[in-house]
Amino acid sequence: MKNDPAIHVENLTKMFGDFTAVNSISFQVGKGEVFGFLGANGAGKTTAMKMLIGISKPTSGQARVAGFNVRTHAEEVKNSIGYMSQKFSLYNDLTIKENIVFFGGIYGLPKSVLKEKTQALVDELGLHDHADALVRSLPLGWKQKVAFSVALLHNPKIIFLDEPTGGVDPITRRQFWEMIYREASKGVTIFVTTHYMDEAEYCDRVSIMVEGNIEALDTPNKLKERYQVGSMNEVFLKLARNIE
Amino acid sequence: MKRFRGFVIKEFYHIFRDKRTLVILFGMPIVQILLFGYAVTNEINNVDLAILDKSKDAETQKIIHDIAASKYFKISDILEDEGQIEAIFKKGKVKAVLVFAPNFDKDLITNGSAGVQIVTDATEPNVANSVSNYLSSILQKYQTDINKAITIPYQIVPETKMYYNPELKSVFMFVPGIMTVILMLVSAIMTSISITREKEMGTMEILLVSPLKPHQVILGKVFPYVFLAIINAIVILALGFFVFKMPVQGSYFLLALESILFIFSALSLGILISTISETQQTAMMTSLMGLMLPTILLSGFIFPISSMPVALQVISNIIPAKWFIILIKGILLKGVGIVVLWKETVVLLFMILLFIGVSIKKYKIRLE
Amino acid sequence: MSISLKNIGKSYGAVKALSNISFDVKQGELFGLIGPDGAGKTTLFRILTTLLFPDNGEAKVSGYDIIRDFKDIRSHVGYMPGRFSLYQDLTVEENLNFFATIFGTTIAENYDLIKDIYEHIEPFKDRRAGKLSGGMKQKLALSCALIHKPRVLFLDEPTTGVDPVSRKELWEMLKRLQQKGITILVSTAYMDEASLCDRIALIQDGTILKIDRPQVIIDTFPSKIYNVKADSTYRLLQDLALYPDTHSVYPFGEYSHFTSADPDFKPSDLMRFLQEKQHSGIEVSETPATIEDAFMELSKASELIDN
C-alpha cells in the first residue's frame, strides 16, 4: 500500500434531489503534491471537498483519502487530515496559545507534546511578543500562518486549505506559500480549494470544476500552453466561456 | 413623503416575508390569552383528597359526603393511620388529607367541639392554601347547618362583596397584563431588532450615505410596528371580550388612545435600545432583560406592587407598563375616565418625550 | 478635481488606521486603491463617504467638503460597501426600486445609465436578492449604487469573493461607466487588477507606498527580475536565500522571482550555484516586473525605514 496515492477519487457523485452537484469526478493526488481544486462559486468544489473530508456521504462512486474509504471510515479520514479555511480558522477571542491548546486537545495530543509544539510554533513564526495576545488583534496574514501551523499540529498526512491567502498582503502571502512548500517537501499532501486564480499558479497541478464536472486537470504550465494564454485566470475564463 | 412611503413599503416586505416571526407575532397573543384564561388559574377543581377517619361515625360520614359532593374535591384514598400520610404525599397525587379525631360525634355532641385536622402538601403553596381554605369553608358550612336550630346570642357574620370582578376571575387580571407584555414585545423588541439588523447587514451604511434624514429612517422603521401593535391590541381585547366576557366599562375611545400612547412609549424604548446596540443579539438581550422582565415582574401584572419591598416599588415607577396596567384596568373594569386617569396619562406622555429625546441625541448619522 | 485628500489621518484607539493620506482623483478617472486587507482601504472609503470623521486632514468630494457639506456628498455619490449590503429578503426589482425612491428618483428616469448592468439581472428581477449568485449580487449592488446618477462612485472591494468571469465583467462595466464621465474610486486586494485602472495608489498599513499609472510603476522597477525554477521548489527557495548577492526571493506562481543586489549579476553564475547544490530542471530567465513585485519592493523599503 506504500505507493497508494494520498487521494484517490473514482466516479464520485453527489446529488441533491434532481440536482447533480458533483457529476462523477475522478482524479488522484500524489503524496507530497500541492493540488489546486478550482471552480467558480456553485461549481461543486465545496460539495466535493466535504465528501473528501468525510462530512458528507457520496451518492455514488468511491473516494479514498489517506488510504481510508470516506464512506466507511470517515472517522479515520478525519484523523489523518488537517483543515484550514479563510472564513474560519481560529477563535478570535482566544489567545494564540489558547487556540493551540484547544485545537491540539481536540486531536488528543498529550500535554507534554502540546507544550513542546506550542513553543516550537511560537519560535518558528517569531510570535514571542504575541503568544498571549488575542487572535483578533493580529493582522490577517499572521492569523493565516498561525492557522496553518495549528492545522498541522496532529501531523496530518493531507491538509485541506480553503482559499487560504485571499486578501493577505503579498509578502506574508509568499511566506505562507513557503510554509506550504516546506510541508509538501516533507511528504504532506496539500489540497487547496480556491477561486482566486493567482493562488492556482502556485500549485503543482490544478483541476478546474465547472458545473459539477472537472473540465481540466494538469499543471498550470501545460494548461496555459493548451489554451495559449498567459495566466490561469485566462485559462479559467476560456473554460467557463466554452461551457456557456 | 414619497421617500417615506417607499421606506414603509420596504419594511412591510420585510415583515410579511419573515413568516416565522409573523406567526409568532400573531399566534403568541392568542395562545397566551387562552393559556392564561383556561389553564393558569388560582381556582381549584377536582383536587385529590385522602381521608383518615379515626371516628367512623354518622357525623364524619355526612361531612365526607358533603366534600365528595362538591366539585372541588375527589376522595381518592381512605387511610388507616397517620403513618400513611407522608407516604401518600410522596406519591404526589393526593394534595391534602382530612383527619378526624377519634370519637368525633361524641365530642361534638357532649363537649360541643370536635377535633378535625387539615394536612396539606405545601410543595405548591398556592394550591395548599386554596385547598385548606375550601375545606375550611365546607366544614364551616356544615357547622352553620347543624347550628341552625340553636340561636347563638352574639354573632358577627361578615358579608363579602367583590367589586369590579365579583367572581374573582383571574382572566380579568391576565388580559390587561398580557396585552401590556405583547405590546411591549411587538413594539420594543421588534423595532430594536429591525433597526439593528440593518446595522448588522451593512445596509445601514448605505442608508446613511443617502439623502434620507434620520427621522425618516426611524419613523419609517417604527410605523409598521405601530400598525401591527394596534392589530394585536384589538385581537387581545376581542378575545377577552368574546371568550372570557371581559367587560369594557369605560370609553372605547379612551382605551384606544391610552393603548396607542403605551405603544408609542414602547416603540420609543425600542428605538433607544437600537441606538445603543450594534447587533441584533445585543438588542434582543437588552430588550428581554431590560424591558420584558420588569414588564412582567414589576408592573403589577403578576405580583401586586403594594406587597413589594419599598425599593422595588420605587423602581416600578419608571416602568411604563405599570402605568398602562393601572390605566387599562381602570378603563376596562372600573369604567373610570380621564378625570381620574390623567396622572398616569401624563406620566406615559412624559416618558415618550424623554425616550425620543435621548434617542435623537444618541442616533448616529455616522458609523462611530 | 473630483476627489482630493490632504493629510487625512485616522486612528482607532492605539491603532493607526491611516496616516497622512494625500492624493487627487481627476474628473472621470478610474482610480484604484490597491492593498491587502487591513491596509486602511475601507476606513478611507468611509471617511470619503462621510461615514467617519478623519482625526486630521481635509478632503473634498465633487467640490464638497466631507465634514461641512456631508449632506451634499450623500446625495451626489454612489457607494458600494465591501460586503453585500442589500436587502436579501427583497427581490431584485424591489431593492432597486427602494434605492431609487430614497434618492428621490425612479428606475425609468435613470435607466439608460444602469441598462448595461441591469440587463444581465433583469430576467431574475422577481428573485430574492439573497438567492442570487455572487456575480449577480455585485451587479445588483452596482445598479443600486448608480440609480441616482452619482457624479462619483465609491466601490470598496467589489471583486472580493467573486469568480473570475464576474470579475472581468465588473471591470468592463466600470470602464463603460467611466466613459460616461463618472469618477470611480475602487479598492481591491488583487494586485492583478491594478493594470485595469488609470492610476493607482498602493497602500499598506495606512500609508500610501506609491501613486502613479500602473505602467509607470512597472517600468520604474529598480532592478531586473529573474524567473527561477527547479524541480524542488522548497529547496530552491532555501538555496536562493543563501546565494550571496540575493536582494529578494519570492515564490511567484510556479517560478520564484529573484533580484540581485549586484548590478553586474550574471544568470549563469546563479545557474552554476544551483547546479552545485544538486538542483535539477533549473531555469533562469529575465521577466518583466509586475505590480505585485513593485508592491513588495516598496513595502520592504518602507519597513526598513520604519525600523
Q: Specify the CATH class of the largest domain in chain C.
A: Alpha Beta
Rg result of chain A = 18 Å
Report the structural category of chain A: alpha/beta
What is the C-alpha radius of gyration of chain C, as a whole number of Å?
23 Å
**In whole angstroms, how far apart are the ends of chain A?**
42 Å
Estimated helix fraction of chain A: 25-40%
How would you classify the helix and strand content of chain C by structural class? alpha/beta
Main beta sheet of chain A: 6 strands, mixed
Overall average residue pLDDT of chain A: 89
Order of secondary-structure elements of chain A: EEEHEEHEHHHEHEHEEHH
For CATH, the homologous superfamily of the largest domain in chain C is named as P-loop containing nucleotide triphosphate hydrolases
Oligomer: heterotrimer
Mean of residue pLDDT of chain C? 93
Biggest sheet strand line-up of chain A? 6-7-8-3-9-10
What does this structure look like?
The complex is a heterotrimer of chains A (244), B (368) and C (307). Chain A is of the alpha/beta class. Chain A has helices spanning 45-52, 74-80, 96-106, 111-125, 140-151, 170-185, 197-200, 220-227, 232-243; strands at 7-16, 19-29, 34-39, 60-65, 68-69, 81-85, 158-162, 189-194, 205-210, 213-218. In chain A, the strands form 2 sheets. A 6-stranded mixed β-sheet of chain A has the order 6-7-8-3-9-10, with helices on both faces. The termini of chain A are far apart. The mean pLDDT of chain A is 89. Chain B is of the alpha/beta class. Chain B has 2 domains: 2-40 and 169-362, no CATH class; 47-146, abc type-2 transporter like domain (abc type-2 transporter like fold), CATH 3.40.1710.10. In chain B, strands 2-1-3-4 form a 4-stranded mixed β-sheet, with helices on both faces. In chain B, helix 3 (58-69) links the parallel strand 1 and strand 2. The relative contact order of chain B is 0.11. Chain C has a 6-stranded mixed β-sheet, with helices on both faces. In chain C, strands 2-1-4-5 form a 4-stranded antiparallel β-sheet, covered by helices on one side. The mean pLDDT of chain C is 93. In chain C, a hairpin with a 2-residue loop joins strand 4 (56-61) and strand 5 (64-65). Chain C folds into 2 domains: 3-218, P-loop containing nucleotide triphosphate hydrolases (Rossmann fold, 3-Layer(aba) Sandwich), CATH 3.40.50.300; 222-288, Alpha-Beta Plaits (2-Layer Sandwich), CATH 3.30.70.100. Chain C has helices at 41-48, 70-76, 92-102, 111-121, 134-146, 164-179, 214-219, 233-242, 267-276, 291-306, and strands spanning 3-12, 15-25, 30-34, 56-61, 64-65, 77-80, 152-155, 183-188, 199-204, 207-212, 225-229, 246-252, 255-260, 283-287. By secondary structure, chain C is α/β, with parallel strands linked by helices. The B-C interface holds B 2-3, 5-7, 9-10, 13-14, 17-18, 201-203, 205-212, 365-368 and C 46, 49-53, 70-71, 74-75, 77, 79, 81, 83-90, 94, 97-99, 101-104, 144.
